[in-house]
Amino acid sequence: MPTDTNDILAAARAVIGQEAQALQRLDAALGESFAQAVRLILTAHGRVIVSGMGKSGHIGRKIAATLASTGTPAHFVHPAEASHGDLGMLARGDVVLVLSNSGETPELADIIAHTRRFAIPLIGVAGRAGSTLLTQADVAILLPSVPEACGTNTVPTTSTTMTLALGDALAIVVMQQRKFSAEDFRVFHPGGKLGARLTRVGDLMHGKDELPLVAQTAPMPEVLLTISGKGFGVVGVVDAAGGLVGIVTDGDLRRHMQGLMGRTAAEIMTAEPRTIAPQALAEQALMQMNDSRITCLFVADPAVGPEPLGILHVHDCLRAGVA
């Protein structure tokens, strides 16, 4: 057993290098059958049913999850369970995606037969041309013939890596064809770090009732009371029509300390303050605040007008896990 670090790393790099070469072979082998599979999924009225046995099954579960999270309804059906009642999960309008490196996995026979009996479109992915799966499939995707990375050509490694990459490619191309946006993605990922990154400004902002606003003619005592009373450390300055024309910050107050109390909001404000749209991602707002070294952004929708709709504080983003 090798214990030397260099030997261990060399062996690991050999595996990764062999799998990387296999992915390059897969890239070169993509053709019309892949495009047909994409079109079949896009035109399906039902779901994508993914199935596979053993290691192919593990890969299939991940592919089904990726499809489902990117706007294509999908779930995994275990081939052994399918033979004991779960074939009822397959229906007309669905598309079935079956994975098998050999293309001859016995447990898949009932699923394949069921798709043929009820005219359910079948996409087969296998590594052996002329196999039962590929000859029966409506769309046959043949994986390149490459050795497994284990050294004995027995442990599914290279083949499963290619199948996973192919599934990712299917899911992402279908997602792009559907014009599935970041906001759509957020609907399926409301929790955790990913959900936080996709949270919109409108979900976190403080609404109109909490806005710290004063008129351009407001005297400084009123400005100071509004700043301290609302608790954001800033105040927005609006014109007669309610449009945001400026902002007063702690920095503005310090720069105009001499004779401050005799001034108006318009005289000390910073004009044309930065704003952000309510539909923007909170992550964008946090980036803008960090880049500008500010702690608040007024929220306004350019499509509606200059009237402020809300305010977002950096702490709102941090509390939501956007960081």
Give a short summary of the structure.
With 323 residues, this protein is of the alpha/beta class. It is built from 15 helices and 12 strands.
The CATH first-level class of the largest domain comes to Alpha Beta
Uncertain spans, ≥5 residues at pLDDT below 50?
none
Q: Could you state the order of secondary-structure elements as H and E? A: HHEHEHEHEHEHHHHEHEEHHEEHEEH
Question: β content, as a range?
Answer: 5-15%
Count all strands and give the number. Answer: 12
Q: Sum up the overall morphology in one term.
A: elongated
Output the radius of gyration: 29 Å
Question: Can you identify the CATH superfamily of the largest domain?
Answer: Glucose-6-phosphate isomerase like protein, domain 1
- Enter the CATH topology name of the largest domain: Rossmann fold
For the residues shown, what is the average pLDDT? 90
SS-derived structural category? alpha/beta
Domain count: 2
In helices, the fraction of residues equals 40-55%
